[in-house]
């Protein structure tokens, strides 16, 4: 039997440990509080939920993201920063771009000159200016995000690496880059629930590039497309948005996905809007038989060529699976395909929405990001 003094001592140790765990300095630390910086001004977002920008009176800025990371844009070396803060210089050049969704922001900001290295090969870029920059040697290939050419990055003075969340699967890469003095910024635009939330990340990169006013202007231009369609009536037409894997399985979009939301905003309805958000994935793989059961009577097919490549005829679609021959949209000649740049060009989100509306409303107007196949 434990004596009372010993029991009290054990309880005291347990309580102390619990207190330490629940109120550790790291957990309670506010990264925006910097000695000598004063209280920052929070910049309000319109749709984005995955980042917040804070501005200080001295011209520096803090970007926090919903994964607990923080990034201080400064050319000074303030002391006492929170452990989760990464320091990024003002308007860095010689950037290693390992986030495919981010290139469009730099293109729209006319700051491709800030990017020197790419983790994506020339032929895999569908933003023409990025492809041309690589063709001209202004941007050079520096290895995939999971295996960068460290020697090249260091010898040529890389000042920042912008990564997608794929980098979280290879944490040793970010650790090595930081060890070499190359700060890492992780893009989380793909986690935004609203289509314009993704687009609003232009404000983040405009702040990093040193042109915040231009970022606001570019976002407002895309928002205008959404505002113009805010009161659009439903066309009553259903659509299915999908692609086919090399193994013959079909990948479509779930209810909470930004593509499903854009279809609805454009006046249509995703036939798979009954599949809910049971996990973080926005897409879902469906067996052909189940897909056919729900999609065969859809008014429209929108084939996502981003993963499996473009198709240019109904015959190509049918060659992937004979079941498409009996689909209502195929029989009525209402089969569309996305352009290859749709995923990489987030800064055209508003234009893509307008194209979708033209298709659902059957206006007959020319579209840029969707094309009809014969």
Describe this protein's structure:
- This protein has helices spanning 4-22, 25-28, 103-108, 128-135, 150-155, 171-179, 195-199, 202-209, 212-228, 258-265, 288-295, 305-308, 314-320, 328-331, 349-361, and strands at residues 41-43, 51-55, 61-65, 70-73, 85-88, 95-98, 115-118, 140-141, 160-163, 184-186, 237-244, 250-253, 268-270, 283-286, 300-303, 335-338, 370-372.
- The protein is globular, with a radius of gyration of 24 Å.
- The chain has 374 residues and is an alpha/beta fold.
- The strands form 3 sheets. Strands 11, 12, 13, 14, 15, 16 and 17 form a 7-stranded mixed β-sheet that branches.
- The chain is built from 15 helices and 17 strands.
- Helix 8 (202-209) packs antiparallel against helix 9 (212-228) and helix 9 runs parallel beside helix 15 (349-361).
- It has 3 domains: 24-90 and 188-228, no CATH class; 94-153 and 164-172, no CATH class; 231-372, Nitrogenase molybdenum iron protein domain (Rossmann fold).
- A hairpin with a 4-residue loop joins strand 3 and strand 4 (70-73).
- The longest helix is centred in the first third of the chain and has 19 residues, at 4-22.
- The N and C termini lie far apart (85 Å).
- Mean pLDDT is 89; it is low at 1-28.
């Amino acid at each position: 039997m434990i004596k009372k003094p010993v029991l009290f001592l054990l309880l005291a140790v347990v309580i102390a440990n619990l207190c330490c765990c629940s109120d550790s300095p790291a957990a309670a630390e506010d990264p925006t509080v910097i000695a000598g910086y004063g209280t920052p001004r929070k910049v309000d977002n319109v749709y984005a939920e995955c980042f917040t920008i804070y501005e200080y009176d001295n011209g520096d800025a803090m970007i926090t993201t919903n994964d607990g990371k923080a990034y201080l844009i400064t050319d000074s070396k303030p002391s006492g920063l929170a452990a989760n803060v990464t320091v990024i210089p003002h308007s860095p050049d010689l950037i290693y771009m390992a986030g495919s969704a981010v290139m469009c922001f730099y293109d729209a900001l006319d700051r491709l000159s800030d990017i020197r290295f790419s983790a994506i090969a020339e032929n895999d870029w569908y933003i023409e200016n990025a492809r041309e920059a690589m063709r001209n040697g202004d941007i050079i290939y520096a290895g995939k995000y999971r295996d960068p050419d460290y020697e090249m990055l260091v010898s040529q003075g890389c000042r920042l690496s912008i990564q997608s969340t794929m980098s979280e699967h290879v944490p040793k890469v970010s650790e090595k880059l930081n060890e070499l003095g190359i700060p890492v910024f992780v893009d989380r635009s793909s986690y935004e629930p609203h289509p314009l939330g993704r687009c609003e990340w232009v404000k983040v990169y405009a702040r990093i590039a040193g042109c915040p006013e231009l970022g606001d202007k570019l976002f407002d231009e895309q928002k205008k497309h959404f505002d113009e369609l805010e009161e659009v009536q439903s066309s009553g037409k259903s659509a299915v948005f999908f692609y086919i894997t090399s193994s013959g399985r079909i990948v479509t979009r779930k209810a909470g996905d930004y593509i499903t939301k854009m279809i609805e905003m454009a006046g249509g309805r995703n036939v798979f809007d009954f599949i809910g958000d049971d996990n973080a994935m926005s897409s879902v793989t469906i067996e052909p038989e189940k897909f056919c059961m729900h999609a065969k009577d859809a008014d429209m097919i929108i084939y996502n060529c981003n993963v499996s490549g473009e198709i240019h005829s109904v015959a190509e679609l049918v060659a992937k699976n004979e079941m498409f021959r009996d689909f209502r949209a195929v029989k009525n000649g209402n089969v569309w395909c996305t352009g290859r740049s749709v995923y990489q060009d987030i800064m055209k989100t508003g234009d893509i929405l307008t194209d979708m509306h033209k298709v659902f409303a059957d206006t007959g107007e020319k579209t840029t990001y969707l094309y009809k196949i014969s």
